[in-house]
Amino acid sequence: MTKPDASVSNSYINREISWLQFNARVLQEAADEAVPLIERLRFLGIFSNNLDEFFKVRYATVKRIVEAGKGAKNELGGIKAKELLEIITQIVINQQSESLDILHEIGNKLKEENIHLINETQIDSGQHEFIKEYFLKEVSPALVTIILNDEVVLPNLKDSAAYLAVRMLMPGDKKQFALIEIPKSVNRFVVLPKQGDKFFIIAVDDLLRHCLSDIFNIFDYKSISAHMIKITRDGELDFESDLSKSFIDKLSDSVKHREVGEPVRFVYDKTIHKDTLQFLMSKMGINETDSIIPGGRYHNRRDYMGFPSLGRTDLLYDKIEALPVKGLSLQDSILKSISKKDYLLHAPYQTFSYIVKFLREAALDPTVKTIKITIYRLAQISHIASSLINAAINGKSVTVSIELRARFDEQANINYAKQMEEVGVNLIFGVAGLKVHSKMCVIEREEGKKTRRYGFISTGNFNESTAKIYTDYTLFTANQKILKDVDKIFEFFKTNYKINKYKHLIVSPHYTKKEVFNLIDKEIENVRQGKEGLIRLKMNSISSYDMVDKLYEASRAGVKIQMIVRGLCCLIPGVPGMSENIEVISVVDKFLEHSRLYIFGNNGDPKVYISSADWMTRNIENRVEVSCPIYDQDVKQEIIDTYNICWADNVKARILNDSQENEYRRNNDEKIRSQYAIYEYYQKKLD
């Protein structure tokens, strides 16, 4: 495989910078006046939540590289690690400033809708009485208040919790500092009594500012003030070597330890007193490799994801009802339908209930003997887990490969793992050195004297909550050849020293790069023979330099490449001599684009795969991932149709290029907002 033209000084976009540009696209949705007003606030919350996770994981990783005394220039796309930390901090400061401007604008727009966000200086007498009672009954019992002085060691502040840093000026101009932890058990936004047609909402932080005199009434202060701070900690899990503990117990302890990991970001209200800031930074041991972000009055803006709707449906996205899949019924046997042909479920346009129905039916069917499934992220209340527990109670042999290290969702998985263990489910905690990220299920059913397999393979997690907002494909199939390969993967989980061969599935970590390269080479060969070469991809992220280089090679050979990449993209499209035949767009809208899809033109007879794998090094080399071929012609056409709709988006699509400016794709064609157009596509299929 040839490398990119040496004249190109930099062939890749740094992954951290690319990811921040993705989050800028989320911020664009918050700024978009065409987005319903309360939804704009929620996009601000998503932007903030994304940033928290970025600092816990990506910034923390780069910081560890710096502290190890390494530059890692080659691994970081041509930027030294220390320089990258400075670039990240500056980008985030600019984005935070922009987000504050957007928040201010949304606040003014809300006033026009008679929704008033008030602070502690705007409370009238009637509201004062309501707030005092609310504080005493709901907030005060949950408060943790820490009195600070030079002698007392500051307790470890919780990761991503918000605190009010309190400064009291005492007689003789002495200063007394304190911290109030804003309780997560209390709603961030308190809806005050309505006045006529006007709504009033106060943030609990401002409610606390109003009640400072009640909290600190034992102190004889001359003045008192409170400013918000937040610390973000390294989210990496550290495992103990205690051999007497089970893996579940070790992981539980590690999740708790994350709360006191090394600090990586410190955000503070830029109007805070300098002496308060210096005192806190000294106490917390904040140093030059941490990202120090001056911000506005309010942090933890992720809480805006839960901003109250107040019954104002006109300020929200139109609610869509998940559609049925034509040919499948929730009232009849789903296994009987699948035995005749393959079906595709495309969430959230179609209801996730078919997956739960499949497992519930398998749990009750006396002829079903075994159920095997991989689980990556479970919902807090999971019907998937309940169905598997039900199956085990009914005497089925149930095997669950559950990935307890699914970042930030470990606790839900741990809780259900313990419940499943209690009823005799055979639990497999991944593979040594690998995460199990594939999404698949296979059951065995006795039919006469034969055993027949049924199953499903998905691009997304088997999670009822995220299935309402993540776009994902799930293939239901009784194709015995595909399901035999699925069964082999479960054999690998048990005997992972033995590497199986697969006739149909493309499986990481052993085969994905090789098989995908073969498919790309076929398109290159087609071009050399005067035929069409076409590759169409949809994924969350692409950061593997090997995969990027291979696409550059295909582009230089004349293969046309279309890519829909929601998140980070280290590939630079449209560069003469390197990637002039590659186009990349990103769609950010109401739903989170999550499906992974590969289409290879194959000279007019497309090869189509759905996959759990993004083209990142971790997915290709350090995880168990599955890409599944689509053999059913109806399902194949459906996937191509929905890809075409997404590719044609000229409302919510952004063009990705080397400028990284997130320009919207605009043309004179009929307006196509792909997520709404795909829903209409499925509505028409039901006619």
From TrEMBL:
One of its GO terms (biological process) is polyphosphate biosynthetic process. The keyword Transmembrane helix does not apply. The keyword Nucleus does not apply. Residues 334-498, 505-675 form the Polyphosphate kinase C-terminal domain. Catalyzes the reversible transfer of the terminal phosphate of ATP to form a long-chain polyphosphate (polyP). Gene3D superfamilies: Endonuclease Chain A, Polyphosphate kinase middle domain, Polyphosphate kinase N-terminal domain. It catalyses: [phosphate](n) + ATP = [phosphate](n+1) + ADP. Residues 127-307 form the Polyphosphate kinase middle domain. Its cofactor is Mg(2+). Mg(2+) binds at R377, R407. This is Polyphosphate kinase. SUPFAM superfamilies: Phospholipase D/nuclease, PHP14-like, PPK N-terminal domain-like. One of its GO terms (cellular component) is polyphosphate kinase complex. Keywords: ATP-binding, Kinase, Magnesium, Metal-binding, Nucleotide-binding, Phosphoprotein, Transferase. PANTHER family: POLYPHOSPHATE KINASE. Residues 12-117 form the Polyphosphate kinase N-terminal domain. An intermediate of this reaction is the autophosphorylated ppk in which a phosphate is covalently linked to a histidine residue through a N-P bond. ATP binds at N50, Y470, R566, H594.
